[in-house]
Amino acid sequence: MSNRKFSRRDALKAGALGTVGLAAGAGGLSLPALGQSTAAQGPTHGSHHDMVTVGQLAPGSFDPTAFLTRFDGGNVSRLPSGQVLREYEFVAEDREIEVAPGVFYPAWTYNGQVPGPTIRCTEGDRLRIRFSNKGSHSHSIHFHGVHPSNMDGAFEPVHPGRSFVYEFDAEPFGLHLYHCHTVPIKRHIHKGLYGAFIVDPKGGRPPAHEMVMVMNAFDTNFDNENEIYAVNTVAFHYQKHPIVIRQHELVRVYVVNVTEFDLLNSFHLHGNLYRLYRTGTDLERYEFTDMVSMAQGERAILEFSYKHPGPFMFHAHQSEFAELGWSGVFLVQEVPHA
Fold first, then answer.
1. Do the Cβ atoms of 121 and 74 come closer than 8 Å?
2. Does the residue 77 lie in any domain?
3. What is the pLDDT of residues 156-180, one digit of tens each?
């Protein structure tokens, strides 16, 4: 048996042939050739005509469907001044995560999951994040947005067994992110220390079916090249378990790119176009498109509604990424006429 490392190129070649092992002892991932999906009929089980994985995640694994709409507002109280205070507990810890059925990755996590919790607040709120490092390496939390320099998380790593309290006012409104900024930054981000950080405008946004999608990827054989791509960690999850939306309803997707090793990632929507609000810091100006490319750290708010019912794909328009896990389905349910 050859000792040559199994690369993502090998995974693509094997995808047309059947199930392949991505890492020693990690189980198998089926990567069939691109074809018309039957995922909209319910969870799929994989065939040579679908882009899906074989099998199911282990019981108790991270649930990307639940993560979509899980917004963490913290423990809310008020300061003597009347300002809203939101308090969070964040713990860094080493944990093995499942990135496809039977494929496990030794991650570094915030609160035991990748991505970390989606922080949500309103512009002007005071945020207080108590961070404890229970991992095996030094870590930190760097928040995008405006804050004092001593709350930046870039120069003072928190060593194992130590803790730190980040406290600042949330500004400006928009879609931000947070991640570890400890050197080597590339490794700390790729290992899983990141999450979405949503600051709502004081007047809010129009009511919508909202969800968070963090574009990420995993180097399962540690050759500085990703073998698995996803939104919200698990390859093809939303292909096997389509996201149900209603015809004509406003959908708002908060998209953050934290993919390591690749210069760009992207989000393409089938059968529709979306209003693209880059960083979400402008409520008026937008692009109208079905495709956006994003470098690491870029993010955008996408708003759309579907005219027609049925299953519609969304995926990276780097075809290689789509065929290695970054592909899903919106199942648009018809609204009966009154």
1. yes
2. yes
3. 999 999 999 999 999 999 999 999 9
